[in-house]
Design goal:
Length: about 325
């Protein structure tokens, strides 16, 4: 006999990308770089940059409105907003509360999660925990970033890699049977290791320097950790969900670099046809990259109801993890 359990099921997705599209060639006007270098090393061809004055909450609100419309819900149907970002509008309040007000949501609670590029996986896991513990029934999970604000435009090794954007999903408590055939989140797997915090960081911050700072990255080292840790986390989360790599219909990885995405897939023996790739059009949008890719994949039909999906990410901290879910 199977037991009745609560599952956090995705009811809606949405995304927003700023209007301004910047092709690789733009960087050649002020840096010693080329479209060929950027494309071959990262897979990135273009990215979107927020307009002057356009904030992370602007992007997040648009993505959230899309997810609400997709779910057929109103703002006050939501109990909780969790917003993953490393580029908040302000030091405080949480950008999530700004979005709460902008959506016209007058109840519930809203907070930010900061785990850099792993932020959405962390936020999704936290949303799942709130739903499973009965503290919330409907959670709006947003990943939103304006990484263009923390670029060092003189550093060709980093500024060509990132972009701005936002994506959102709505999770709802739903009864399941407790088996891997249930819709919803089946398992989560989170890790961090602060010993590696210096290989990917921002050079300033409120307490340390009273400034915003710029992104700095030891790319080769991050790369080395990424493939190994993402593959391990994916295997572990699938194992915890009671499924195997062979059961996976769709992989939605963090979109940092096509070489990391394809080498991780290769290590897992997963064909690239099953992998959602948006890095060519979005660049690395940090916490926004996974919900953006989810929304694009749903719109294109690459992911559909009943599919077994695994999503994985790594970023500054280092922080990494994976989530297995049935769409
Ligand atoms: N244009 C032209 N040449 C460049 C550029 C550029 N934009 N950037 C670096 N180079 C040069 C370097 O100076 C170096 O020249 P040298 O050999 O004369 O010193 C040469 O290209 C090779 O540089 P590498 O750093 O060795 O290039 P690599 O193949 O490692 O690619 C990259 C660099 C793309 C950053 C890669 O290491 C990478 O993707 N790492 C992972 C980064 C990542 O994914 N981070 C995101 C995860 S976490 C998060 O999302 C925040």
């Amino acid at each position: 006999m199977t037991a009745s359990v609560t599952r956090a099921v995705i009811r809606g997705v949405g995304h927003y990308l700023p209007e301004r599209v910047v092709e690789n060639d733009w960087f050649t006007t002020f840096l010693d770089t080329s479209d060929e270098w950027i494309k071959s090393r990262s897979g990135i061809e273009r990215r979107h940059f927020a307009a002057e004055g356009q904030t992370t909450s602007d992007l997040a609100t648009r993505a959230a409105e899309g997810a609400l419309a997709d779910a057929g819900m109103q703002p006050d149907d939501i109990d909780t907003i969790i917003l993953a970002t490393s580029t908040p509008d302000l030091t405080f309040p949480a950008t999530a509360t700004i979005v709460q007000e902008r959506l016209g949501m007058t109840r519930g609670f809203a907070f930010d999660v900061q785990a850099v590029c792993a932020g959405f996986v962390y936020a999704l896991s936290n949303a799942n925990a709130l739903i499973l513990s009965g503290q919330a029934r409907r959670v709006l999970v947003i990943g939103a970033e304006t990484f263009s604000r923390i670029m060092n435009w003189e550093d060709r090794t980093t500024c060509v890699l990132f972009g701005d954007g936002a994506g959102a999903v709505i999770l709802e408590a739903t009864e399941g049977t407790g088996t891997a055939s249930d819709r919803g989140i089946l398992a989560t797997d989170l890790h961090s290791d602060g010993r590696h915090r210096d290989i990917l960081k921002v050079s300033g911050g409120v307490s340390a320097s009273q400034s915003t700072g710029h992104l700095m990255m030891a790319g080769k080292e991050v790369f080395r950790h990424a493939v190994e840790k993402l593959a391990r986390s994916t295997i572990d989360v699938l194992d915890r969900a009671g499924v195997t790599v062979g059961d996976v219909d769709c992989v939605i990885p963090h979109q940092a670099n096509i070489r990391i995405i394809s080498r991780t897939a290769q290590k897992l023996d997963l064909p690239m046809e099953k992998v959602v790739v948006t890095v060519q059009d979005h660049g690395n949008t940090s916490a926004a990259s996974i919900p953006l890719a989810m929304s694009v994949a749903k719109a294109s039909g690459q992911v559909s109801e009943g599919d077994l999906v695994v999503t994985e990410a790594i970023g500054g901290g280092l922080a990494w993890g994976a989530v297995a879910l049935r769409w």
